[in-house]
Specification:
The chain has two helices and four strands; from the N terminus they run ααββββ. By secondary structure, the protein is α+β, with helices and mostly antiparallel strands.
């Protein structure tokens, strides 16, 4: 009986060790949103006017809005989008990938 018990223990240990060797490991990589997308792209800064943006960056490819109160307007360019509240930039977002 001792031989069978010892054999079962040895067998279970060898399977346990095999499971440990065959497990997959993964690493999670976190990239902040601000660092995703194209690097070194110039976008309008907060506070500048629509006329300044159009003068410096050209006409947008698409305009959406204004929507809501306060009115938010979205100008879409190749590679980024500019959000305005009334006549001033509140945020510029670089498109992902």
């Amino acid at each position: 009986m001792k031989t069978i018990t010892a054999a079962i223990c040895a067998l279970s240990l060898s399977f346990g060790a095999g499971v440990g060797l065959n497990t997959a490991k993964a690493e999670e990589v976190k990239v902040p949103v601000a660092k995703q997308g194209k690097h070194n792209i110039q976008v309008p800064k907060r506070g500048v006017t629509k006329s300044y943006v159009e003068q410096k960056f050209g006409a947008p490819n698409n305009v959406e809005g204004p929507v809501g109160d306060p009115p938010i307007t979205k100008w879409v360019y190749n590679g980024y989008t500019v959000y305005f509240e009334y006549d001033h930039v509140i945020h510029s977002v670089v498109h992902h990938g």
